[in-house]
Amino acid sequence: MKRDANQGYAALEQIAVNSPDLLKSLLEGSPDTISLSDVRHPDLPLTYVNPAFTRTTGYSPDEALGRNCRFLQGEDTNKDDVARIRKAINAREPVDVVLLNYKKSGEPFINALRMAPIFDSSGQLSAYLGIQQDITEERLRAERDIGQNRLEALGTATGSLAHQLNNLLHPVTSLISLHLSDIENADVRRDLEMAHYSAQQAADLSDNLLGLSRGSFREETDTTSLSDGLNRAIDLVRLMLPPTITIETAFGNLPKELNIPINETLFAQVLINIVTNASQATKHSGIIRIDVTQDEDSSVKISIADNGPGIPAELRKKVFTPFYSKSISKNSSGLGLSVASQIINKVGGKIIFGEGLIQPDGDGFGCMFTIDVPIIT
Amino acid sequence: MCQILLIDDMKPVRHAIAATLRRAGHDVVETDDGNKGLEIASKKRFDLIITDIMMPASDGTDVVFALKSAPTGPKVVAMSGGGSGIPADDALTLSASRADAVLKKPFTNELLIETVSNLTSN
Asked: Can you tell me the ipTM of this complex?
């Protein structure tokens, strides 16, 4: 083991002597951001950043060198993450942290940061190495896949549950109705009719569950019937939310043949994300109104409005940025709206933020998210 | 009155269907598995065979295909738990296309009796 390391070191020496440019090219050509901090100064100013640093963050070496890299942090950067970095530096230990950083443009990105103290051959701390990777896209994709898998699993589970329920309910309704006419005591008959009625209600509920699971949530196609997709997703979200929330819909006359170019599971994920957020905003006791309007031949707008507390104007542009909602609710992954927005953007649509329903006290407006998607003509 | 073979692995379901059929005056032989059902059907003549599709031991689809591949033979009713979203989707559709009628569970006694008499009236 030691010999191997020595051999590697010898090879490095050789590169350093014979082709010093290669070492430089390694740093400059690295696809990951590499930075070095000066340990002689207590504030660890940057002494080197490679071109990938500039590509990722938008800051040129001129703008970055001499400063501590905390200038990448911003208002929604988690303070605990920062504290972990500081602690590792004090202990002279390496650290891996995923934190929210900001580009020069102000755009946030999810940064997978590795920092390590670098010791020279005499064991003296000589620099702090930082390696960073913008993993925003990866995180959003993972979040989307998790949501999709969850919906698909739910579809399969409800299908199988409903099937078993139907099998159990059949003898109940069948046997009661078979023998009901033989019962002479009117009171007993009324009781059994009640039992029969309840069993039928349960069977209807079970049929609704089957409707939810009916194939589509796991289909691979990238086309969804707007009315089917909407109805199924809303039925599902009603089951997921407390009964105290009121969900009003007004799209009864949607033509069945109106199709949108998006996988139904992903479409459901977008709707469920937005409706769940709206319900949380009203503390699960408000009103959510879902409308569909079509002013053009090429696109359709699905708006989800709530009568919750709304979002102050200065924060509105941030609702789609990763981790925004995490700062409001601890239960949130903070990625729901980012993912929703990404899914809709990918099919050539957009999600627009606007003012929602009037609040119960009449003072202001809740939120409205409008999904503007192209239709297949 | 008809001779009916009823195949369903779930005893309560089978019991309820058999009771309904007997009440309507039919003769019912019950079994809980597709292979057993085919064996019984090979030894005795039935006017009608009612089979569940999804059963653990042997699938009802095989029963439907075996019975309907012969030019003459009993009428066949396939029963399904109503389930899409379960792995046997294709089997359900497939056997539905071959069967003389399909009953989606849970169905009413009236629908069961009506289906039986429609298929056996001539």
From this structure: 0.82
**Using CA atoms in the order A75, A78, A83, A84, what is the torsion angle rounded to 10 degrees?**
-140
Q: B84 and A213 in contact by Cβ < 8 A?
A: yes
Q: Do B20 and A168 touch (CB under 8 A)?
A: no
Closest CA to A163 of B110, B79, B94, B14: B79
Residues in CB range of B71: below 8 A, 6 or more apart: none
Domain residues for the domain of B77 are 3-120
CB A264, CB A232: distance < 8 Å: yes
pLDDT classification of B85: cutoffs 50, 70, 90: very low
Task: Provide the pLDDT for residue B84.
Answer: 45
> From the list A163, A203, A218, which residue is nearest B83 (CB)?
A163
Sheet holding A108-119, edge to edge: A46-49, A33-37, A125-134, A108-119, A95-102
Alpha carbon distance A320, A334 (integer Å):
9
**A207 inside 8 A of chain B by CB:** yes
Q: How far is B89 from chain A (nearest CA, A)?
A: 9
Confidence of residue A7 (pLDDT cuts 50, 70, 90): low
What gap in Å lies between CA B14 and CA B110, rounded to an integer?
Answer: 16
Q: Which residue of B has its CA nearest to A204?
A: B106
pTM of the model: 0.62
Tell me the CATH number at B39. 3.40.50.2300
List CB contacts (< 8 A) between B56 and chain A: none
A351 Cβ neighbours under 8 A, 6+ residues apart: A270, A274, A320, A337, A340, A341, A344, A369, A370, A371, A372
Residue A115 phi, psi dihedral angles, 5° rounding: -125, 145
β-pairing verdict for B75-80 and B48-52:
parallel
Query: Closest Cα partner for A374 from A268, A269, A259?
Result: A259
Cβ pair A174:B84 closer than 8 A:
no
Bridge partner list, B45:
none
